[in-house]
Amino acid sequence: MAVLRFTKQWIEPILSGRKTQTLRKKVSSTVIVAETVEAWNGYSRDRMFAVLVILAVDTVKVSELSELDAHRDGFESLPELRRALRGLYPGTRSLYRIRFRVARNV
Predict the structure, then answer these.
(1) Whole-angstrom Cα distance, residue 26 to residue 45?
(2) How many separate domains does the chain show?
(3) How far is CA 67 from CA 22, 43, 70, 99, in A?
(4) Residue 64: helix, strand or coil by DSSP?
(5) Which domain holds residue 45?
(6) What are the phi and psi torsion angles at 57 (to 5°)?
(7) Which tens digits make up the pLDDT trace of 25-53?
(8) How far is the first Cα of the chain from the last one, in angstroms, to the nearest whole number?
(9) What is the CATH number of the domain that holds 77?
């Protein structure tokens, strides 16, 4: 099963349904629409916290991101999302947009 790793700050928003999207510079070819992936807190304690169903995978230009993208990604506003993306992926012009829902908590 494919894996998506998240920092600890995103676990509760994902489990509560407030975060239903992630933006990534790279995505595994095993992250496929309608398939499930394991969600891991892989950057600190390396543990699985949920199984996610992938709803959509596409590419999006950073300049075309919307307020809806920001909210789906767990941010209060589009400027806040863009600041975070500049810190994570400086100079990147397009990203993979992965939409998901929680299938089950682990």
Answers:
(1) 22
(2) 1
(3) 14, 27, 5, 15
(4) helix
(5) 2-105
(6) -140, 125
(7) 999 999 999 999 999 997 655 689 999 99
(8) 15
(9) 3.10.400.10
Amino acid (1-letter code) at residue 103 = A
pTM, to two decimals: 0.94
What pLDDT sits at residue 77?
A: 98
* Beta pairing partners, 5: 40
- Only one residue has tokens 């398939």, namely 35
Q: From CA 22, how far away is CA 69, in angstroms rounded?
A: 9
What is the distance of C-alpha 92 from the center of its chain? 16
Q: Residues 55-101: pLDDT tens digits?
A: 999 999 999 999 999 999 999 999 999 999 999 999 999 999 999 99
* Separation of alpha carbons 72 and 100, rounded Å: 10
| Strands 36-41 and 2-5, bridge-based pairing | parallel
